[in-house]
Amino acid sequence: MTEPGFGIYVHWPFCQAKCPYCDFNSHVVAQIDHDAWRRAYTSEIARIRAMTGERRVGSIYFGGGTPSLMEPATVETVLSEIQRHWHISNDCEITLEANPTSVEAGRFRDYRLAGVGRVSMGIQALNDPDLKRLGRLHSVAEAETAFEIARETFDRVSFDLIYARQDQTLDDWATELDRALAMAADHLSLYQLTIEPETAFGERYARGGLRGLPSEDLSADMYELTQERCEAAGMPAYEVSNHARPGSESRHNMIYWTGGDYAGIGPGAHGRLTLDGRRHATETATAPLVWLKGALTGKTPEEIVTLDDATVIEERLLMGLRIAEGVPLELAQQVPDFERKVLDLEGYGLVERTSDRFRVTETGRPVLNGILRALFA
User: Fold this and answer.
1) Domain residues for 121?
2) Which residue, 49, 92, 142, 269, is most buried by CB atoms nearer than 10 A?
3) What is the CATH number of the domain that holds 125?
4) In whole angstroms, what is the distance from residue 196 CA to residue 198 CA?
5) What confidence score (pLDDT) does residue 198 get?
6) Residues 218, 330: one domain?
7) Distance (Å, whole) CA 75 – CA 240
8) What is the pLDDT of residues 294-309, one digit of tens each?
9) 230 shares its domain with 372
10) Domain count of the chain?
């Protein structure tokens, strides 16, 4: 396994519309002062560089929100400032999340010229009625056109789909998944629809208004179908919801899942940084204008917490057991009463260990949350 390395996450908090299932830190506003945001990101990069010292950057990820609403000049400025303050590795993965509307696809060439080499597209469904129900602003035809433009423009392209949607049958999902695999370049993120509190879907569900959601059994069947079809297409799951051709895994997400350091830049951005030999959690204020004002005045509202050893171990397992390769066995063995807990889980075929690794099996992956509860009980 390669070393997790150091990554930088840049959060752009704005969207054209708030999707009803989304609980990310995203906001819809009438006007954006792009020059002010460029200056704020520039200031933050310098501030965080003073904290981390010299590091080799292996991944840069523009997330959101909808980063494809950023002016290409802003992306170029951010990348130039990162390069000025840290050393960027020759094979640094630079990813930008994008929506597949025609307006955003029109910016792809400029993002490529700015330095972006990988795009992750939020397609979410290959069915026009469901796209409308999910609050998406694009059609299937627009998504396919944008995807082709992306494949011609960037070195690597990924896209997301959501399944277990309202009134979706197993055959519906099989047809849609096969269509996605026929399109896919090297990476797919396939998520079950989750109803989060404090979202439009969450409020509708609480009122009994979100009808047609699949049963647990049907959702499980959709998950199994996803694993089988993706494996057969040469894109096995390397993480619970992520599939890739070998060598095309998201390097940035692997930093999260393997316990690497990453700096979070932007409103509501989280980070994990090793400072003076201790691991620290960082989190900035979520309100965009609060963060912007702080960044521009050199008083960024940020919470920095030194993590104790038990929390570091728990985080490593919570993240590391999501991926197929699992975690180092010696790390897992630091869980209190490890042997007794694992013997029970092994008896059900949910986890396995080798001479140096501890991992969740394919049988265990659908019930990962239950496995984690058992380990940390």
Assistant:
1) 6-256
2) 269
3) 3.20.20.70
4) 6
5) 85
6) no
7) 30
8) 999 999 999 999 999 9
9) no
10) 2
